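[[Encoded backbone]]
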Amino acid sequence: MDNILPWFALKSVPGIGNYLFKKLIKRFKSPEAVFEASCSELSSIDGISERLAGVIKKFKAPEDLKKEIDAAIKKGYMIITMSDRDYPLLLLEIPDPPPLLYVSGNLCSSSKNIAVVGSRNATDYGLSITKRLCSELVSNNITVVSGMARGIDTAAHEGALNGNGKTIAVLGSGLGRIYPVQNTKLFHMISENGAVISELPLMAEPDAFNFPARNRIISGISLGTVVVEATKRSGSLITARLAAEQNREVFAVPGSIESFKSTGTHTLIKQGAKLVENVKDIIDELSNVLVSNKNTAIKEKKEIDSQDICLNAEESQVLKALESYPVHIDELTRKVKMETGKLLSILLKLELQDLIKQAPGKLFSLRIKTEEY
């Protein structure tokens, strides 16, 4: 604990944010050396005024810092600092990395991370695509990073876990305040197959202002950020903007032009984000930094071939008219030019054969299947 306490102390100095903290460590190498430096040495750092240098010299660590460290250790959490070998290398490159991270699980310094984020109120299409994409990413030894929020974030972590891969969750609350609460089980599963991390104090609440700062860690720890389903006002676009500012790649999964849930992702594509149809699009774009095993299979979506299934002509017609993105029954009726009652009967048969799925509101879509080859 003694070697961690100075990091907490320097972080607690009024006026020392993450940006100045990084500058001080770059110059003096350790918090202990910062506190031992003279006022003139401190004020020689750009951004450190004589007044702030005086505050640093006079600062005494609050007693509750020791209690905070003890509480984290008793919970079984690790606390890693910028000088630790397990601190993410990519995160050190951003202008304002967190000086320390609380970690539940095992956080290695590997940089083969891809962030996948999106809407909290996702469609079945978005959730299905996310799970498939993340399962494919981990099959290529890539770690999936997300924020453990509802919707796309949860699907990203679940897809990685379903693919027996590693995933990292970055919280906008302390590790002692799991948010959302319904993801408590997921929290523990991620901890066993990767890590849940936070820069916030152990019992910090999930206040709204924490999440934009959390997003810089999600993008900063990753080689690129994939956005799946985001409106024009989505917080996921903040993560994408931060990724671009951090000189990281930005990817976007297209959706229906009629869905407001995809207006944000389409805007990103117009602005130059890489369009993603499958995992190969991501790997090809990052081929210069991703060292992939040539024998590693790449999973990609394989369209359902109606010739391999015993369907009559009308059933095949309906199946071919469906896509992975949900289609309303009225639109489908127009496409196949079939009476609604008959169409519903065919759709029911296809659903029972596990070829399609129905979402609330009479929305139908292909059941996406993946296969390794």
